[in-house]
What does this fold into?
Amino acid sequence: MSPIITRLLIIEDQLIVRDALVSMLRSRPELQIVGVASSIRVGGPLLERTAPHLLLLDLSLEDGSGLELARTLHRARSKTRVLVMTAFGDRFAAAEALRFGVAGYFMKEQPTSDLLAAIEAVIHGGTYVPPALAARLTAEPPADDDPLATLSRREREIFRLAVLGSNSRELATRLFISVKTVDSHLLNIARKLGVRTTAGLVRFAAEHGIATGPALEAPKASNLAYEGRERG
It folds into this structure.
């Protein structure tokens, strides 16, 4: 009997991570990579054209939120299973993703062996959340205590990128908006959260368990990127 092949689409905006994923996954006989994209603009049509079984989706893309794409698939009752890859390690981001039908939540700082385990779980109808994060979701289920409840979706995205170390110009380039618009969002975020500076945003994140641990530092190359270099 021929093995069941899982059709896989990758949407990831970091070239080094994208290349590492392709290098690692193309050798898996049970997986067929049907497309690779760096943005929603390119990935959306690819998704419709290739109808993959599994979508590996970066949560924060250069032209928008991967979460919005996941929500669109969920509303359309798509059969494509979604496994997101992210640097956001807080329980609120994970809970929001799972609420929008995401089947797997993978942290980019995890080893690639965990990614293979996540893929295995998701393509067989299960879910995957890193054990430590799953324990926090179980022990402290987010309900009405979401500290970012007053923020819009765009403000949440800018907040998380800002506490990861992105400045206004970098945010503007990544999100395809003006620096003035970014600064306006940051002022609104600070007002809503009762802080005055970017340092205050970082403290707020730490105090509320949002993007905690390594994610509060300047972003580092993921384990996927390092292992991709070793293969190259």
The longest helix spans residues 179-193. The beta strands are 6-11, 31-37, 54-58, 60-61, 64-65, 81-86, 104-107. Residues 212-221 have pLDDT under 50 and may be disordered. Residues 26 and 33 are 7 Å apart (CA to CA).
